[in-house]
Amino acid sequence: MSVAAVRRAYRGLPTAWGVRGGQADRAAEVQRPKDEIGDAMTPEEVVRAQFDAYRRQDRAASEALLARDLTFTSPQDDHIDRDAFFERCFPTADRVSRQELLRVAPAGDEDVFIMYEYDLKTGGTHRNAELITVVGGQIVEIQVFFGGAAG
Questions:
Q1: Taking the domains of the chain in order of start, what are their residue ranges?
Q2: Are strands 138-149 and 66-74 parallel, antiparallel or unpaired?
């Protein structure tokens, strides 16, 4: 799937999925001229689209959003590459019954901070944070910080 196809698909997602920003996003979409729909996504839009691709397990969309030189780091994964991410991390969405972005905030020109909450199918609600770097419309680095049980 091309980046342009991901952009087109992402812009059509309903906000009720919990992966878009709500009223502000709807207002911006209404005001955006139709000929600008193909414009480059903001880093925040790229991150939201990747979050959605992960939840839906849409590997083609995810591949278009993740740079070939991606570095992924979490307390369980020390600077793994894109191939290892798709092998180890991407398939884990099936363990989650609900996942919701709580915060999406720019942190400079290329970085985006997110905080999300998820319910495991085995029980328990957890909250994590990530710092994600987007360059040229693709994610080049993901740093995950485990927050533990939410409650």
A1: 3-149
A2: parallel
pLDDT band at 46 (very low <50, low <70, confident <90, very high): very high
Element (H, E) at 130: strand 125-135
Query: Can you give the three-state secondary structure of 42-79, one letter per residue?
Result: CHHHHHHHHHHHHHHCCHHHHHHHEEEEEEEEECCEEE
Q: How far apart are CA 19 and CA 6, in angstroms?
A: 15
Please check the confidence at residue 101 and state whether its pLDDT lies above 50: yes
CB 76 within 8 A of CB 17: no
Quick one: CATH architecture of 3-149? Answer: Roll (3.10)
Average pLDDT of the residues of the chain:
82
Specify the pLDDT at position 7. 53
